[in-house]
Specification:
By secondary structure, this protein is an alpha+beta fold. It has helices at residues 4-8, 12-33, 52-60, 63-74, 93-98, 126-136, 142-147, 149-170, 179-195, 201-207, 217-225, 234-248, 252-270, 285-291, 296-327, 329-345, 357-370, 409-413, 436-441, 455-472; strands at 77-81, 84-87, 104-105, 176-177, 379-380, 386-390, 395-399, 404-406, 478-480, 487-488, 494-495, 501-504. It has a domain at 30-102 and 379-441. Keywords: Heme, Iron, Membrane, Metal-binding, Monooxygenase, Oxidoreductase, Transmembrane, Transmembrane helix.
Protein backbone atom coordinates (compact mmCIF):
# COMPACT_ATOMS: atom_id res chain seq x y z
CA UNK A 1 0.00 0.00 0.00
CA UNK A 2 2.89 2.32 0.73
CA UNK A 3 3.90 2.27 -2.93
CA UNK A 4 0.50 3.51 -4.23
CA UNK A 5 1.24 7.27 -3.93
CA UNK A 6 4.53 6.81 -5.72
CA UNK A 7 2.79 4.91 -8.52
CA UNK A 8 0.11 7.60 -8.97
CA UNK A 9 2.43 10.56 -8.66
CA UNK A 10 3.75 10.44 -12.26
CA UNK A 11 0.18 10.38 -13.58
CA UNK A 12 -1.07 13.49 -11.76
CA UNK A 13 0.50 16.16 -14.00
CA UNK A 14 -1.20 14.72 -17.08
CA UNK A 15 -4.45 13.44 -15.61
CA UNK A 16 -5.40 16.45 -13.46
CA UNK A 17 -5.95 18.84 -16.41
CA UNK A 18 -7.90 16.11 -18.16
CA UNK A 19 -10.10 15.60 -15.11
CA UNK A 20 -10.73 19.33 -14.75
CA UNK A 21 -11.55 19.69 -18.45
CA UNK A 22 -13.90 16.71 -18.28
CA UNK A 23 -15.70 18.16 -15.26
CA UNK A 24 -16.04 21.49 -17.04
CA UNK A 25 -17.47 19.85 -20.15
CA UNK A 26 -19.89 17.79 -18.05
CA UNK A 27 -21.00 20.96 -16.28
CA UNK A 28 -21.60 22.74 -19.59
CA UNK A 29 -23.46 19.70 -20.94
CA UNK A 30 -25.66 19.69 -17.84
CA UNK A 31 -26.41 23.39 -18.32
CA UNK A 32 -27.45 22.79 -21.91
CA UNK A 33 -29.51 19.63 -21.39
CA UNK A 34 -31.30 20.66 -18.20
CA UNK A 35 -31.87 24.29 -19.08
CA UNK A 36 -35.46 25.50 -18.57
CA UNK A 37 -34.73 28.54 -20.77
CA UNK A 38 -33.29 26.66 -23.75
CA UNK A 39 -36.41 27.34 -25.84
CA UNK A 40 -35.84 31.12 -25.62
CA UNK A 41 -33.82 32.89 -28.33
CA UNK A 42 -30.57 34.63 -27.49
CA UNK A 43 -26.80 34.59 -27.99
CA UNK A 44 -24.79 31.50 -27.08
CA UNK A 45 -23.00 33.18 -24.18
CA UNK A 46 -26.33 33.77 -22.42
CA UNK A 47 -26.54 30.03 -21.72
CA UNK A 48 -23.35 30.05 -19.70
CA UNK A 49 -22.71 31.03 -16.10
CA UNK A 50 -21.75 33.52 -14.71
CA UNK A 51 -23.29 36.39 -16.77
CA UNK A 52 -19.99 38.13 -17.49
CA UNK A 53 -21.23 39.66 -20.77
CA UNK A 54 -24.13 41.40 -19.03
CA UNK A 55 -22.03 42.67 -16.11
CA UNK A 56 -19.35 43.93 -18.50
CA UNK A 57 -21.78 46.07 -20.48
CA UNK A 58 -23.52 47.27 -17.33
CA UNK A 59 -20.16 48.47 -16.02
CA UNK A 60 -18.99 50.10 -19.26
CA UNK A 61 -22.31 51.92 -19.67
CA UNK A 62 -23.72 50.54 -22.92
CA UNK A 63 -25.99 47.82 -21.51
CA UNK A 64 -29.19 49.28 -22.96
CA UNK A 65 -27.71 49.74 -26.42
CA UNK A 66 -26.39 46.17 -26.48
CA UNK A 67 -29.72 44.72 -25.33
CA UNK A 68 -31.57 46.74 -27.98
CA UNK A 69 -29.23 45.25 -30.59
CA UNK A 70 -30.04 41.75 -29.35
CA UNK A 71 -33.74 42.48 -29.74
CA UNK A 72 -33.22 43.62 -33.33
CA UNK A 73 -31.47 40.31 -34.03
CA UNK A 74 -33.48 37.81 -31.98
CA UNK A 75 -36.91 39.38 -31.58
CA UNK A 76 -39.07 40.71 -28.72
CA UNK A 77 -38.04 38.08 -26.14
CA UNK A 78 -34.31 37.58 -25.65
CA UNK A 79 -32.34 35.62 -23.13
CA UNK A 80 -29.49 37.92 -22.08
CA UNK A 81 -27.98 35.79 -19.29
CA UNK A 82 -28.49 32.33 -17.82
CA UNK A 83 -31.49 33.43 -15.73
CA UNK A 84 -32.20 36.86 -17.27
CA UNK A 85 -34.69 37.69 -20.01
CA UNK A 86 -35.36 41.02 -21.69
CA UNK A 87 -38.67 41.79 -23.42
CA UNK A 88 -39.20 44.57 -25.96
CA UNK A 89 -42.90 44.06 -26.64
CA UNK A 90 -44.99 46.56 -24.68
CA UNK A 91 -47.72 43.93 -24.39
CA UNK A 92 -45.67 42.52 -21.51
CA UNK A 93 -45.69 45.75 -19.48
CA UNK A 94 -49.02 45.04 -17.80
CA UNK A 95 -48.39 41.42 -16.75
CA UNK A 96 -44.86 42.15 -15.51
CA UNK A 97 -45.40 45.46 -13.72
CA UNK A 98 -49.10 46.14 -13.19
CA UNK A 99 -51.50 43.20 -13.07
CA UNK A 100 -52.17 41.94 -9.53
CA UNK A 101 -49.59 44.40 -8.23
CA UNK A 102 -46.89 43.29 -10.66
CA UNK A 103 -44.00 40.91 -10.10
CA UNK A 104 -41.69 41.42 -7.14
CA UNK A 105 -38.54 43.44 -7.59
CA UNK A 106 -35.31 41.52 -8.15
CA UNK A 107 -32.76 41.11 -5.36
CA UNK A 108 -30.37 43.53 -7.06
CA UNK A 109 -32.54 46.46 -5.91
CA UNK A 110 -31.00 45.92 -2.47
CA UNK A 111 -27.86 47.46 -3.95
CA UNK A 112 -29.71 50.79 -3.80
CA UNK A 113 -30.30 50.58 -0.05
CA UNK A 114 -28.98 53.63 1.80
CA UNK A 115 -26.67 53.00 4.76
CA UNK A 116 -27.86 49.40 4.89
CA UNK A 117 -31.54 50.36 5.09
CA UNK A 118 -34.24 49.67 2.51
CA UNK A 119 -35.94 52.75 1.08
CA UNK A 120 -39.37 53.23 -0.45
CA UNK A 121 -37.64 52.67 -3.80
CA UNK A 122 -35.35 49.75 -2.98
CA UNK A 123 -37.58 47.77 -0.60
CA UNK A 124 -38.42 44.22 -1.71
CA UNK A 125 -40.84 43.52 1.14
CA UNK A 126 -44.29 44.70 0.03
CA UNK A 127 -45.60 45.07 3.60
CA UNK A 128 -42.52 47.04 4.71
CA UNK A 129 -42.97 49.47 1.84
CA UNK A 130 -46.74 49.75 2.32
CA UNK A 131 -46.38 51.21 5.83
CA UNK A 132 -44.16 53.99 4.56
CA UNK A 133 -46.16 54.72 1.41
CA UNK A 134 -49.36 54.92 3.45
CA UNK A 135 -47.76 57.56 5.66
CA UNK A 136 -46.54 59.83 2.85
CA UNK A 137 -48.42 58.76 -0.29
CA UNK A 138 -50.99 61.57 -0.33
CA UNK A 139 -48.17 64.14 -0.58
CA UNK A 140 -47.53 62.83 -4.09
CA UNK A 141 -51.13 62.85 -5.38
CA UNK A 142 -51.78 65.18 -8.30
CA UNK A 143 -54.37 67.21 -6.38
CA UNK A 144 -51.95 67.82 -3.53
CA UNK A 145 -49.09 68.62 -5.90
CA UNK A 146 -51.23 71.14 -7.79
CA UNK A 147 -52.22 72.78 -4.51
CA UNK A 148 -48.54 73.19 -3.63
CA UNK A 149 -47.46 74.38 -7.07
CA UNK A 150 -46.69 77.86 -5.74
CA UNK A 151 -43.74 76.51 -3.77
CA UNK A 152 -42.34 74.86 -6.89
CA UNK A 153 -43.01 77.91 -9.05
CA UNK A 154 -40.99 80.12 -6.71
CA UNK A 155 -38.02 77.80 -7.27
CA UNK A 156 -38.61 77.89 -11.04
CA UNK A 157 -38.55 81.70 -11.03
CA UNK A 158 -35.16 81.68 -9.29
CA UNK A 159 -33.93 79.10 -11.81
CA UNK A 160 -34.91 81.26 -14.80
CA UNK A 161 -33.32 84.30 -13.16
CA UNK A 162 -30.04 82.36 -12.72
CA UNK A 163 -30.18 81.18 -16.33
CA UNK A 164 -30.89 84.70 -17.56
CA UNK A 165 -27.91 85.97 -15.56
CA UNK A 166 -25.63 83.44 -17.21
CA UNK A 167 -27.03 84.29 -20.62
CA UNK A 168 -26.06 87.93 -20.11
CA UNK A 169 -22.62 87.16 -18.69
CA UNK A 170 -21.69 84.45 -21.18
CA UNK A 171 -23.16 85.87 -24.39
CA UNK A 172 -20.70 85.72 -27.24
CA UNK A 173 -20.02 82.01 -27.58
CA UNK A 174 -18.89 80.98 -24.09
CA UNK A 175 -20.34 77.60 -23.18
CA UNK A 176 -22.82 77.41 -20.32
CA UNK A 177 -23.51 74.15 -18.47
CA UNK A 178 -27.21 73.83 -17.62
CA UNK A 179 -27.05 70.38 -16.02
CA UNK A 180 -25.87 71.63 -12.63
CA UNK A 181 -28.38 74.47 -12.66
CA UNK A 182 -31.24 72.09 -13.52
CA UNK A 183 -30.17 69.74 -10.75
CA UNK A 184 -30.17 72.64 -8.31
CA UNK A 185 -33.72 73.55 -9.31
CA UNK A 186 -34.88 69.94 -8.93
CA UNK A 187 -33.32 69.67 -5.47
CA UNK A 188 -34.73 72.98 -4.26
CA UNK A 189 -38.20 72.11 -5.56
CA UNK A 190 -38.38 68.64 -4.01
CA UNK A 191 -36.96 69.81 -0.68
CA UNK A 192 -39.17 72.91 -0.47
CA UNK A 193 -42.34 71.00 -1.34
CA UNK A 194 -41.80 67.76 0.62
CA UNK A 195 -39.58 68.82 3.52
CA UNK A 196 -40.79 72.38 4.08
CA UNK A 197 -37.24 73.72 3.78
CA UNK A 198 -35.31 74.39 0.59
CA UNK A 199 -31.79 73.05 0.21
CA UNK A 200 -30.54 76.29 -1.33
CA UNK A 201 -28.91 74.78 -4.40
CA UNK A 202 -29.86 77.68 -6.65
CA UNK A 203 -28.26 80.13 -4.24
CA UNK A 204 -25.09 78.04 -4.29
CA UNK A 205 -25.17 78.01 -8.08
CA UNK A 206 -25.39 81.80 -8.11
CA UNK A 207 -22.34 82.09 -5.88
CA UNK A 208 -20.22 79.58 -7.81
CA UNK A 209 -17.84 80.87 -10.44
CA UNK A 210 -17.98 77.45 -12.11
CA UNK A 211 -21.45 76.14 -12.97
CA UNK A 212 -22.48 72.76 -11.65
CA UNK A 213 -20.58 73.15 -8.40
CA UNK A 214 -23.43 73.05 -5.93
CA UNK A 215 -22.72 71.00 -2.83
CA UNK A 216 -25.10 68.10 -3.53
CA UNK A 217 -23.57 67.36 -6.93
CA UNK A 218 -20.97 64.91 -5.64
CA UNK A 219 -23.62 63.10 -3.58
CA UNK A 220 -25.78 62.60 -6.68
CA UNK A 221 -22.87 61.49 -8.88
CA UNK A 222 -21.67 59.06 -6.22
CA UNK A 223 -24.98 57.20 -6.13
CA UNK A 224 -25.43 57.38 -9.90
CA UNK A 225 -22.13 55.49 -10.17
CA UNK A 226 -23.57 52.69 -8.02
CA UNK A 227 -25.64 51.84 -11.10
CA UNK A 228 -22.64 50.31 -12.87
CA UNK A 229 -22.81 47.45 -10.34
CA UNK A 230 -26.61 47.38 -10.05
CA UNK A 231 -27.06 43.88 -11.50
CA UNK A 232 -24.58 42.17 -9.16
CA UNK A 233 -25.93 39.86 -6.46
CA UNK A 234 -26.06 41.90 -3.22
CA UNK A 235 -23.35 39.83 -1.51
CA UNK A 236 -21.00 40.35 -4.46
CA UNK A 237 -21.93 44.02 -4.69
CA UNK A 238 -20.67 44.50 -1.11
CA UNK A 239 -17.38 42.79 -1.99
CA UNK A 240 -16.86 44.75 -5.21
CA UNK A 241 -17.83 48.03 -3.57
CA UNK A 242 -15.27 47.45 -0.84
CA UNK A 243 -12.52 46.43 -3.26
CA UNK A 244 -13.13 49.40 -5.56
CA UNK A 245 -13.08 51.76 -2.59
CA UNK A 246 -9.77 50.26 -1.44
CA UNK A 247 -8.15 50.34 -4.88
CA UNK A 248 -9.35 53.78 -5.98
CA UNK A 249 -9.04 55.39 -2.57
CA UNK A 250 -11.29 58.01 -1.00
CA UNK A 251 -13.02 60.64 -3.11
CA UNK A 252 -12.88 63.55 -0.70
CA UNK A 253 -15.14 65.77 -2.78
CA UNK A 254 -17.85 63.10 -2.96
CA UNK A 255 -17.49 62.28 0.73
CA UNK A 256 -17.87 65.94 1.65
CA UNK A 257 -20.97 66.18 -0.53
CA UNK A 258 -22.45 63.07 1.11
CA UNK A 259 -21.73 64.63 4.51
CA UNK A 260 -23.44 67.92 3.58
CA UNK A 261 -26.57 66.16 2.32
CA UNK A 262 -26.58 63.89 5.37
CA UNK A 263 -26.42 66.88 7.72
CA UNK A 264 -29.26 68.57 5.84
CA UNK A 265 -31.38 65.41 6.13
CA UNK A 266 -30.57 64.99 9.82
CA UNK A 267 -31.48 68.62 10.47
CA UNK A 268 -34.87 68.06 8.87
CA UNK A 269 -35.56 65.09 11.14
CA UNK A 270 -34.36 66.80 14.30
CA UNK A 271 -36.30 69.93 13.38
CA UNK A 272 -39.71 68.27 13.54
CA UNK A 273 -41.67 70.01 16.30
CA UNK A 274 -39.01 72.66 16.89
CA UNK A 275 -40.53 75.50 14.86
CA UNK A 276 -43.51 76.35 17.02
CA UNK A 277 -45.85 73.79 15.45
CA UNK A 278 -47.40 70.81 17.12
CA UNK A 279 -46.06 67.56 15.66
CA UNK A 280 -49.60 66.61 14.60
CA UNK A 281 -49.87 69.80 12.52
CA UNK A 282 -46.57 69.22 10.72
CA UNK A 283 -47.46 67.84 7.31
CA UNK A 284 -43.95 67.40 5.96
CA UNK A 285 -42.58 64.14 4.61
CA UNK A 286 -40.34 63.63 7.63
CA UNK A 287 -43.05 64.40 10.20
CA UNK A 288 -45.45 61.94 8.60
CA UNK A 289 -42.89 59.13 8.75
CA UNK A 290 -42.06 59.87 12.37
CA UNK A 291 -45.76 59.80 13.30
CA UNK A 292 -46.00 56.42 11.58
CA UNK A 293 -43.45 55.07 14.05
CA UNK A 294 -40.43 55.06 11.73
CA UNK A 295 -37.22 55.62 13.68
CA UNK A 296 -35.21 58.77 13.08
CA UNK A 297 -32.21 57.12 11.42
CA UNK A 298 -34.43 55.52 8.82
CA UNK A 299 -36.34 58.76 8.19
CA UNK A 300 -32.99 60.42 7.47
CA UNK A 301 -32.21 57.67 4.96
CA UNK A 302 -35.61 58.01 3.27
CA UNK A 303 -34.97 61.75 2.90
CA UNK A 304 -31.55 61.12 1.35
CA UNK A 305 -33.07 58.66 -1.10
CA UNK A 306 -35.68 61.21 -2.20
CA UNK A 307 -33.00 63.89 -2.55
CA UNK A 308 -31.03 61.62 -4.87
CA UNK A 309 -33.98 60.47 -6.97
CA UNK A 310 -35.63 63.88 -7.12
CA UNK A 311 -32.42 65.66 -8.08
CA UNK A 312 -30.90 63.29 -10.62
CA UNK A 313 -33.75 62.23 -12.89
CA UNK A 314 -35.60 65.56 -12.99
CA UNK A 315 -32.32 67.45 -13.37
CA UNK A 316 -31.40 65.28 -16.34
CA UNK A 317 -34.83 65.62 -17.96
CA UNK A 318 -34.93 69.39 -17.49
CA UNK A 319 -31.42 69.89 -18.87
CA UNK A 320 -32.37 67.85 -21.94
CA UNK A 321 -35.50 69.98 -22.35
CA UNK A 322 -33.28 73.10 -22.44
CA UNK A 323 -30.83 71.43 -24.84
CA UNK A 324 -33.55 70.27 -27.24
CA UNK A 325 -35.33 73.64 -27.23
CA UNK A 326 -32.03 75.32 -28.08
CA UNK A 327 -31.28 72.73 -30.76
CA UNK A 328 -34.71 73.15 -32.37
CA UNK A 329 -35.58 76.89 -32.41
CA UNK A 330 -38.82 76.28 -34.32
CA UNK A 331 -40.06 74.05 -31.49
CA UNK A 332 -39.12 76.73 -28.96
CA UNK A 333 -40.98 79.36 -31.01
CA UNK A 334 -44.11 77.20 -31.20
CA UNK A 335 -43.97 76.54 -27.46
CA UNK A 336 -43.41 80.21 -26.73
CA UNK A 337 -46.35 81.24 -28.94
CA UNK A 338 -48.65 78.81 -27.12
CA UNK A 339 -47.61 80.01 -23.66
CA UNK A 340 -47.87 83.71 -24.52
CA UNK A 341 -51.32 83.15 -26.03
CA UNK A 342 -52.44 81.37 -22.86
CA UNK A 343 -51.00 84.18 -20.74
CA UNK A 344 -52.99 86.71 -22.76
CA UNK A 345 -56.20 84.82 -22.06
CA UNK A 346 -55.38 84.39 -18.36
CA UNK A 347 -53.15 87.28 -17.23
CA UNK A 348 -53.05 85.86 -13.69
CA UNK A 349 -51.05 82.90 -15.00
CA UNK A 350 -52.90 80.54 -12.69
CA UNK A 351 -53.84 78.08 -15.41
CA UNK A 352 -52.28 74.63 -15.21
CA UNK A 353 -49.45 74.38 -17.77
CA UNK A 354 -50.32 70.76 -18.58
CA UNK A 355 -53.58 72.01 -20.11
CA UNK A 356 -51.46 73.36 -22.99
CA UNK A 357 -51.28 70.69 -25.72
CA UNK A 358 -47.95 71.64 -27.29
CA UNK A 359 -46.24 72.11 -23.94
CA UNK A 360 -47.47 68.69 -22.80
CA UNK A 361 -46.34 67.11 -26.07
CA UNK A 362 -42.90 68.71 -25.71
CA UNK A 363 -42.52 67.29 -22.22
CA UNK A 364 -43.60 63.81 -23.34
CA UNK A 365 -41.06 63.92 -26.15
CA UNK A 366 -38.39 65.07 -23.70
CA UNK A 367 -39.15 62.18 -21.36
CA UNK A 368 -39.19 59.73 -24.26
CA UNK A 369 -35.75 60.73 -25.56
CA UNK A 370 -33.75 61.90 -22.53
CA UNK A 371 -33.33 58.40 -21.04
CA UNK A 372 -32.79 59.49 -17.46
CA UNK A 373 -33.37 55.81 -16.60
CA UNK A 374 -32.54 53.79 -19.73
CA UNK A 375 -32.10 50.25 -18.42
CA UNK A 376 -34.39 47.39 -17.44
CA UNK A 377 -36.50 47.52 -14.29
CA UNK A 378 -35.89 43.87 -13.30
CA UNK A 379 -38.60 41.73 -11.72
CA UNK A 380 -38.81 38.07 -10.63
CA UNK A 381 -41.24 35.77 -12.43
CA UNK A 382 -43.60 34.13 -9.88
CA UNK A 383 -43.87 30.34 -9.32
CA UNK A 384 -46.52 29.89 -12.02
CA UNK A 385 -44.24 31.40 -14.68
CA UNK A 386 -45.13 34.08 -17.22
CA UNK A 387 -47.19 33.17 -20.28
CA UNK A 388 -47.99 36.00 -22.67
CA UNK A 389 -48.73 36.48 -26.34
CA UNK A 390 -46.41 38.82 -28.24
CA UNK A 391 -48.13 40.77 -31.03
CA UNK A 392 -44.67 41.70 -32.34
CA UNK A 393 -43.62 38.07 -32.81
CA UNK A 394 -47.19 36.89 -33.39
CA UNK A 395 -46.71 33.93 -31.09
CA UNK A 396 -46.90 33.04 -27.38
CA UNK A 397 -43.94 32.83 -25.01
CA UNK A 398 -43.45 31.17 -21.65
CA UNK A 399 -40.87 32.51 -19.19
CA UNK A 400 -39.98 29.94 -16.48
CA UNK A 401 -40.56 30.65 -12.78
CA UNK A 402 -37.98 32.69 -10.84
CA UNK A 403 -36.44 34.15 -14.01
CA UNK A 404 -35.33 37.77 -13.78
CA UNK A 405 -37.32 39.60 -16.44
CA UNK A 406 -37.71 43.23 -17.45
CA UNK A 407 -38.36 45.83 -20.12
CA UNK A 408 -36.22 48.91 -20.72
CA UNK A 409 -37.17 52.44 -21.83
CA UNK A 410 -34.20 52.49 -24.23
CA UNK A 411 -35.73 49.77 -26.40
CA UNK A 412 -39.38 50.76 -26.00
CA UNK A 413 -38.85 54.48 -26.59
CA UNK A 414 -36.69 53.99 -29.69
CA UNK A 415 -38.78 51.30 -31.36
CA UNK A 416 -39.40 52.54 -34.95
CA UNK A 417 -42.49 50.33 -35.26
CA UNK A 418 -44.11 52.35 -32.45
CA UNK A 419 -42.34 55.73 -32.78
CA UNK A 420 -41.46 56.45 -36.44
CA UNK A 421 -38.06 58.15 -36.76
CA UNK A 422 -37.49 57.41 -33.07
CA UNK A 423 -34.30 59.47 -32.74
CA UNK A 424 -36.04 62.60 -34.01
CA UNK A 425 -37.20 65.06 -31.34
CA UNK A 426 -40.74 65.66 -32.57
CA UNK A 427 -43.42 66.89 -30.14
CA UNK A 428 -45.90 66.86 -33.02
CA UNK A 429 -45.99 63.04 -32.90
CA UNK A 430 -48.03 63.33 -29.69
CA UNK A 431 -50.55 65.65 -31.36
CA UNK A 432 -51.17 63.50 -34.46
CA UNK A 433 -53.59 61.03 -32.83
CA UNK A 434 -50.92 58.97 -31.03
CA UNK A 435 -51.45 55.24 -31.31
CA UNK A 436 -52.42 53.02 -28.39
CA UNK A 437 -48.95 51.46 -28.62
CA UNK A 438 -47.29 54.87 -28.27
CA UNK A 439 -49.26 55.58 -25.12
CA UNK A 440 -48.67 52.09 -23.73
CA UNK A 441 -44.92 52.01 -24.36
CA UNK A 442 -44.28 55.48 -22.89
CA UNK A 443 -42.32 54.28 -19.88
CA UNK A 444 -40.27 57.08 -18.22
CA UNK A 445 -41.57 56.55 -14.68
CA UNK A 446 -42.32 52.84 -14.83
CA UNK A 447 -45.86 51.48 -14.54
CA UNK A 448 -47.90 49.74 -11.88
CA UNK A 449 -47.71 49.80 -8.11
CA UNK A 450 -43.92 50.31 -8.04
CA UNK A 451 -43.74 53.14 -10.55
CA UNK A 452 -41.98 56.33 -9.41
CA UNK A 453 -43.83 57.63 -6.35
CA UNK A 454 -42.88 61.24 -7.18
CA UNK A 455 -43.94 61.20 -10.84
CA UNK A 456 -46.67 63.85 -10.36
CA UNK A 457 -44.24 66.18 -8.60
CA UNK A 458 -41.64 65.62 -11.32
CA UNK A 459 -44.18 66.42 -14.05
CA UNK A 460 -45.25 69.57 -12.22
CA UNK A 461 -41.65 70.75 -11.97
CA UNK A 462 -41.04 70.11 -15.67
CA UNK A 463 -44.32 71.75 -16.72
CA UNK A 464 -43.75 74.90 -14.67
CA UNK A 465 -40.15 75.11 -15.88
CA UNK A 466 -41.17 74.66 -19.53
CA UNK A 467 -43.76 77.42 -19.21
CA UNK A 468 -41.25 79.77 -17.55
CA UNK A 469 -38.58 79.05 -20.17
CA UNK A 470 -41.07 79.85 -22.93
CA UNK A 471 -42.56 82.89 -21.20
CA UNK A 472 -39.20 84.50 -20.42
CA UNK A 473 -37.60 84.04 -23.84
CA UNK A 474 -34.35 83.17 -22.09
CA UNK A 475 -33.46 80.57 -24.74
CA UNK A 476 -33.86 82.97 -27.68
CA UNK A 477 -30.51 82.94 -29.47
CA UNK A 478 -29.29 79.87 -27.60
CA UNK A 479 -27.63 76.98 -29.44
CA UNK A 480 -27.09 73.43 -28.22
CA UNK A 481 -23.47 72.29 -28.06
CA UNK A 482 -22.82 69.00 -29.85
CA UNK A 483 -24.86 66.72 -32.07
CA UNK A 484 -25.99 64.62 -29.11
CA UNK A 485 -25.55 64.26 -25.37
CA UNK A 486 -23.67 61.02 -24.75
CA UNK A 487 -24.62 59.09 -21.64
CA UNK A 488 -23.41 56.16 -19.60
CA UNK A 489 -26.37 53.79 -19.60
CA UNK A 490 -26.44 52.90 -15.93
CA UNK A 491 -29.69 52.54 -13.97
CA UNK A 492 -29.61 56.33 -13.61
CA UNK A 493 -27.87 57.61 -16.71
CA UNK A 494 -24.82 59.82 -16.40
CA UNK A 495 -23.72 62.39 -18.96
CA UNK A 496 -20.26 61.25 -20.07
CA UNK A 497 -18.81 64.75 -20.07
CA UNK A 498 -20.66 65.76 -16.90
CA UNK A 499 -22.07 68.79 -18.73
CA UNK A 500 -25.08 69.68 -20.90
CA UNK A 501 -23.99 72.85 -22.68
CA UNK A 502 -25.57 75.80 -24.47
CA UNK A 503 -24.08 78.90 -26.06
CA UNK A 504 -25.71 82.26 -26.77
CA UNK A 505 -24.56 84.07 -29.90
Amino acid sequence: MSTLPSLLHPLLPTTLPTILLTLLLLHLLHLLLYDPHRHLPGPWHARLSPPLWLHHHAYTGDESTQISRLHRRYGPVVRIARNDVSISDGAALAPVYAEKGGFLKAQCYRNFDFEGRATVFSALDVAYRAVRVKAVGSLFGMGRVRAGAGVVEACVERFVARLEGRRRRKKGGTRVDVLGLCRALALDAVSSYLFGRGFGGLEEEEEEEEEGGFSAGGFVDFFVAVGRFFLLPPWLFEVVDGVVGWVVGPDWEAEESVRVVGEFARGLVEGVGEEGRDDDDDDTFQARLLRAGIEKEEVKVQIEDLIFAGTDSTGMNLSMLCWNLARHPHIYRTLRDEVLAADAQDPTGTYHPLTLPYLTATLRETLRTSLANPTRFPRVVPPQGLAFYSPQAQKPFFIPPFTTVGLQPHTLHFNPAVYPEPRKFDPERWLRAPSAEMQRDFFPFGVGARQCIARNLAMMELALAARALARSGVLVGAEAVGEEVEILEWFNSRVRSGRVELVWR
